[in-house]
Structures are given as structure tokens and as C-alpha cells.
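C-alpha cells as discussed.
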């Protein structure tokens, strides 16, 4: 297949050259926030469809994709502030946040910190709702071992896709897609992401001070929320979808069967139609 991507734009966020996409000129504003190790590239099956009805933005947050990779260690609070500063700089006073994986933690923290900035939430297989996280991620928290495991190679890229999706074969056999995956696994990206993960996780999983704080504050959220999860998600278990639904009063959920951690890639048409319907209500 040929992967079509929007035009890259850049903005300086407090000294960090930040890549983002902006497309669509109608409807409400939507901001896509990828997960750890992700990049705007992985939204390529979604942004064009959503932009037919909404103003779509997506960014590579610090240390990801084509955005600068600072030498400093960023924790979740730093990344939350980074995204809020990005929104300020591009004139995005408020938006619906569509966020996956660790990006979902950032979206929740934004909603809790600055509720007026968030119109709606779409949370996709997010972290931060319990200590459970995939074992390979936990291993990267170990000094030395994390540096060895987080080493860019085609083998590492293939392993990542085998962990992230229910049926990896179509992706593993697509050279263009795998080149995109490998491009987003550059050494400096993996080093930054390893440092970030160690601020929130260890060999036992997500640190209690992270997930307990977020889980306990879910009832404070007064924002319409759509929770989407792959039933066979290996990164963060589907049981966490129920935690989110029970904790956020104004929420609804949809579980994708025969689906892993990336429903927006694995079932893009169903994902896009579900999100568009949610945004229209």
C-alpha cells in the first residue's frame, strides 16, 4: 500500500522544534495525542476521515517522531504541560482530545488540570488506570537492560507490531509500513522514551503513585468521554476499560474484538465512524 501523510508543520515549544499536522476547516477542533513510542504517522488512517467534518490537529510530543529529543528527562507532568503549551502556541484554546496508550494519561491529566481546554475525550487503550502493563515495557525500566532492549532494528520493529496488534501479518508483510515503524524507533527516540517510562513505571508495572492518583480522580471529570479498547490488548488489559467507564460518569465504551492495542489501525473504518458519531452528539 501507499501511505499518504498530511504536510508536516513545525512550531517551537519552549525551545523544542515540534512537528504537527493541521487539516480540515469545518466543525469543532480535535487534537490527536499518540502514545509512548508513537508518532503522528500512526494516525494516517484516521486524520483525513475525521478532517472531513472537523478541524484536526496531531502532534509528535517531545522526544517522539520528528520532534526534537531533549536530553532532559520528561515525566508525565512535563509532557502534559508541553501539550498545553503547544495548544497555546497554535491558538487552540480548547479541543476534543483523542488519545491512545500513555497519551491517554496525558489527556486525562490535561482534563483534570485544565477542564475548560477539553470539549470531549476519546480514550483508546490508555495507561494509568492500574499497575498492569506489558512485561516488555516493564523490563525496560531496569538499568542497562532497558538500553539493550530498546535498540532499533527490524527485529525490534517486528516484535513491537506482534505485541501491538491482534493479527500482525498484514503489517509485517508491508515494507512501507514497517519502514515507518522503524523510522519511529530511532535510538534517540527510544532513549528518551525509556527515561520517560522509568518516571512512571518499574519492573512491577505502573507505579502506584501514578495510577492510584489518576484512578481516584476519575469521578472529578465532567466531560463526555468515549472509551475504546481492543479486547486482546497486550499493553493495557481490557479490564481497564471498565475502570474508566465506572469512574467517569458521563462515559460510554466500545470494545473491538480480535483487536490489540491499536484499534484505529486495526479497524480504521469502524473506529472513524464511531468517533464521528460521538463527536456529532
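Sequence:
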Amino acid at each position: 500500500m501507499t501511505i499518504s501523510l498530511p504536510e508536516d508543520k513545525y512550531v517551537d515549544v519552549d525551545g523544542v522544534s515540534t512537528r504537527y499536522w493541521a487539516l480540515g476547516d469545518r466543525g469543532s477542533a480535535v487534537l490527536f495525542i499518540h502514545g509512548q513510542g508513537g508518532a503522528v504517522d500512526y494516525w494516517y488512517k484516521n486524520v483525513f476521515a475525521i478532517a472531513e467534518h472537523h478541524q484536526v490537529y496531531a502532534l509528535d510530543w517531545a522526544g517522539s517522531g520528528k520532534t526534537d529529543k531533549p536530553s532532559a528527562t520528561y515525566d508525565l507532568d512535563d509532557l502534559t504541560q508541553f501539550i498545553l503549551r503547544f495548544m497555546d502556541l497554535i491558538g487552540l484554546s480548547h479541543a476534543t482530545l483523542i488519545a491512545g496508550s500513555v497519551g491517554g494519561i496525558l489527556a486525562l491529566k490535561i482534563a483534570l488540570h485544565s477542564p475548560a481546554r477539553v470539549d470531549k475525550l476519546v480514550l483508546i487503550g490508555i495507561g494509568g488506570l492500574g499497575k498492569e502493563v506489558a512485561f516488555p515495557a516493564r523490563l525496560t525500566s531496569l538499568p542497562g537492560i532497558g538500553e539493550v532492549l530498546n535498540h532499533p532494528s527490524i527485529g525490534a520493529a517486528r516484535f513491537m507490531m506482534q505485541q501491538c496488534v491482534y493479527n500482525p501479518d498484514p503489517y509485517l508483510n508491508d515494507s512501507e509500513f514497517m519502514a515507518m515503524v522503524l523510522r519511529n524507533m530511532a535510538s534517540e527516540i527510544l532513549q528518551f522514551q525509556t527515561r520517560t517510562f522509568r518516571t512512571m513505571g518499574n519492573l512491577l508495572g505502573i507505579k502506584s503513585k501514578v495510577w492510584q492518583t489518576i484512578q481516584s480522580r476519575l469521578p472529578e471529570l465532567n466531560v463526555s468521554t468515549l472509551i475504546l479498547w481492543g479486547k486482546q490488548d497486550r499493553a493495557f488489559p481490557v479490564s481497564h476499560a471498565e475502570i474508566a467507564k465506572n469512574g467517569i460518569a458521563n462515559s460510554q465504551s466500545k470494545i473491538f474484538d480480535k483487536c490489540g492495542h491499536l484499534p484505529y489501525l486495526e479497524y480504521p473504518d469502524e473506529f472513524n465512524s464511531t468517533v464521528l458519531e460521538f463527536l456529532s452528539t
